[in-house]
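re the bet — no i am not wrong, look at it urself. input seq straight from the record:
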Amino acid sequence: MYGKKILKNLTAYQQGKQISEVQKEFNLAKIIKLASNENPYGYSQSVNDLFLNGDLNLEIYPDGYATNLRNALAKKLQVDKDELVFGNGSDEIITLICRAFLEPGYNTVMASPTFTQYRHHSLIEGASVKEVPTVEGYHDLDAMLEKVDDQTKVVWICSPDNPAGTLVSETELKQFLDEIPLETLVVLDEAYYEFVREENKYNTTELLKKYPNLITLRTFSKAYGLAGLRIGYGMMHKEIAHKLNVVRGAFNTTRLAQDAAIKALEDEAFLNKVVKNNERIKNDFVEFLNENDFKVYDSETNFILVEIPGKGNDAALQLLKQGFIVRSGELLGYDNTIRITIGIEEDMENLKAAMKDLKLNVSKEV
């Protein structure tokens, strides 16, 4: 009766189970949440000090231009201040891109499976969605390019990808950007950029200079540990940034989020510790999985997608009963998988035993 017709065919985002829910449902004292790709090391101590000692001025509207954060980030990334757009997480910038550039009669191209919000918000704006199957979790850029036509306004590339964790190589990306029409925007979602190994990272500043139709998205939710504050940003040509600023809310990011992001940027030692620990513990856990005949998708993130001998929902439920919250791949487009966030060393050691039990129980059922 109310709303756009397309809303009848869409559902709200389904978040993973919360710790309190699981404790109550299964009567468990300890819960280890490894489902939402959050930072198990928390956030910088300087962010904590800000909340304890800062003058928060909650009665005053935030700076809609995010001046201080904008200046700090522009200096760090070596981009022009007007090439930055800030959002309530990078998720909001995805919404803004769809709102600004998509409408009925146009189409958008993306991999499948990939981050679900590209498709979701494209459909809400009335655009047609062209999806190209991934290959072993990797984007098939050649096939995606073939889907692009005169009515294609936006192409989405999630790299590293969520939920697979795979990375599009810089060579492949440049070749794709060289061939895509300038009239088509290419959104490179780098939410997990900080976790990418140094030798595989893109020179994003140079890419932005060469390709005026490129938009790069990043967030403070993952490696910086500020998921609860919802602050992300995009880098792009000034003309594109202007259009996104026209459609965004006037005060879409809070003063607290802006100030905390500045503190997080300054604490490079904390960020380096997070990245180093994640890589070490991930490599160890992947080695364990390989030794126990689990297939693991390539990952340049703080999570892994694991193929299991059974349904993802069943595996996630079994682990849930043992106090581990993981994400079923069935909800993300990959049947017979689970997505596991890399936690602290102790939690991942405990998960090893649970994964062995999972394998054993499935074998018995078969």
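see?? Residues 182 and 286 are 40 Å apart (CA to CA). told u. also The longest strand covers residues 152-158. so pay up
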